[in-house]
Design goal:
Rossmann fold, mainly alpha, three-stranded parallel β-sheet, Calcium-transporting ATPase, transmembrane domain
């Protein structure tokens, strides 16, 4: 019995990871050991009585924790049954009799002391043989996946509004509303810099299938909202016809940056001190870029007249409200699913 086994299994229970024990030993012996580490195992299921039917096998796996007298082939069938039931399966083992199941598992984990064949089919080998590494492995995996999903919304929304703006302004034969260096500034403030820090932050959110669908369902409509805000500014400037190109581009930069930063604020929730600091710093960066004469000259910015400024702020406010409504709608839908 590993001294840290009970603590580690407690961690997995807290993380809503279901634990099943497959062993070739007597089920009563395995159940007694399981109870010592805190598992609710009043008795062990004798695998010699396991049903062959896949649906009945899955039912047995859902309703029991400990299984004894399990053959190598049965271990593989049990892993496959759990996968058919919609579970993501990680399995640890060190014997040759575990190799078949480890190969079929989504994540096969072997100890360094395991047989060569077992290590060969595993996705992960604990070189120091310490079982207490697994909570760190789970935390790191969740951090990577959850943060990739989070920052992907920023990049995908940028792709969406870039396509819409390019197509719209090209069809209307209007000048593109930004200089390349202006887009570099807005991209850095709304995407590049915050995405770098968000990707490195801890994130314990559990992975759920549908990553691409969730990202696209928020990012694409958000991109359209940003494009609409920029287009509204340029339609107003074209109708009025009394504003310089530089002033119109500056108003477009403001509309794009403010709506883009609200996308950042939405995908950063739930907010904590570090995330709020990043968002606040990006807002200050925007003020610094548009308010510093040297940077105004470098980026080709010209402070817009009051009417154009109010149009830009109004368009941005409309975009912010639309993005907020979209985010709340998606959050409720994801919670139901």
């Amino acid at each position: 019995m590993r001294p840290d086994a009970a603590k580690i299994l407690d961690y997995f229970r807290e993380q809503d990871v279901k634990v099943r024990i497959f062993s070739g030993d007597d089920p009563r012996t395995v159940a007694a050991v399981a109870r010592e580490v805190g598992l609710d195992a009043e008795y062990g299921y004798d695998a010699r009585e396991l049903p062959v039917d896949p649906d009945l096998l899955l039912e047995a796996l859902e309703n029991n924790v400990v299984f004894g007298r399990v053959s190598p082939e049965q271990k593989k069938d049990m892993v496959l049954a759990l996968q058919r039931g919609g579970h993501t399966v990680a399995m640890t083992g060190d014997g040759v009799n575990d190799a078949l199941a480890l190969k079929e598992a989504d994540i096969g984990i072997a100890m360094d002391s395991a047989a060569a064949a077992t290590k060969a089919v595993s996705r992960l080998v604990l070189l120091d043989g310490r079982f207490d590494r697994l909570p760190g492995v789970v935390a790191e995996g969740r951090r990577v996946i959850a943060n990739i999903e989070r920052v992907s919304a920023l990049f995908l929304s940028k792709t969406a509004y870039a396509i819409v703006l390019s197509a719209t302004f090209g069809a209307l034969l209007w000048d593109f509303p930004f200089l390349p260096r202006q887009l570099s500034a807005t991209d850095g403030l709304t995407i590049g810099i915050p995405a770098f820090f968000l990707a490195l932050m801890p994130n314990n959110r559990r992975y759920t299938p549908g990553f691409l669908k969730r990202s696209l369902s928020f990012a694409v409509p958000s991109g359209f909202v940003v494009a609409a805000a920029v287009l509204a500014v340029n339609v107003y400037a074209t109708v009025v016809g009394a504003h310089t190109v530089s002033a119109t581009r500056t108003a477009s930069v403001l509309a794009l940056s403010l709506t883009g930063l609200w996308i950042l604020a939405a995908i950063s929730r739930p907010l904590n001190l570090r995330r709020a600091t990043i968002i606040g710093t990006m807002y200050l960066g925007l003020v610094f870029v548009v308010g510093t004469p040297l940077l105004q000259d470098f980026f080709g910015l010209e402070w817009p007249p009051n009417d154009l400024l109010m149009t830009a702020l109004g368009s941005a406010l409309g975009g912010i409200l639309a993005i907020e409504a979209l985010h709340r709608f998606q959050s409720r839908r994801n919670a139901r699913n």
